[in-house]
Design a protein that fits this description.
The protein is mostly beta strands. The chain is built from 3 helices and 12 strands; from the N terminus they run ββααββββββββββα.
Amino acid sequence: MFVGLGVRVLEPKAVAGGILDANGFVSRALVAGPFAGASYEEALDKEFLADQALADPRPGAVGEWREVQASPAGVFDFNALKNDAEAATQTVYLSFWLFSPRSDNLLEGGVLLDHSQGAKVDLLAGSDDGAKIWLDGKLVLENRGKNPLQADQYTLTGLSLKKGWNHFLVRVANDRGGWQFQARLACRYPTLAPLLQTDVVRPGPQRERRFRTANKTVDRQAGCRYTRPLHVRGGAPAGDQENPR
């Protein structure tokens, strides 16, 4: 906290509950694959699944999506999933959902909201080897390197959420050796963090209405001063950037 500046700056807090553990690590997700590539570049770039299968993954759907559990440390280890021991370069897709009761649009419903009512989260992740991450179909990270897993290797601060279910899609490529992924979520808005929900699949309309109704009263009563986010290790300034990397 800075003293004497008249501004209170809060550290991001872990988003917990649902498929997230107490420290905000993703503990369960849907995984499709592995798919073998002729090269590392192909494993990173070739489209192995159609857009429709990637937009709304369901267990047992095209691409053989199934739920996978991370280790107690929040690490997904994909080597156990290899379907071809001879294939040196392979890729997997990983998917999970995050529900927000409000959007980051400051003109939502024609009413100008103050910044304390925004809706942003931080995603801190690491992979072995390269990875791509999409939020609601928009590419927010691309790492083409070949590297061991490092916690919080990627720091994506201030990712804007829409009202409703937001989809995180991850692709992790491997070039021999270790093949892992780890991610955690944090939120800098004290009134928003307790209202966020997570799941491995996007619930149907009836359950989504229950999420909206349950959160509506709490959200209206919540009060918060605007707090400018701190930088997270190695991250770009969050500010109001939509998808800083």
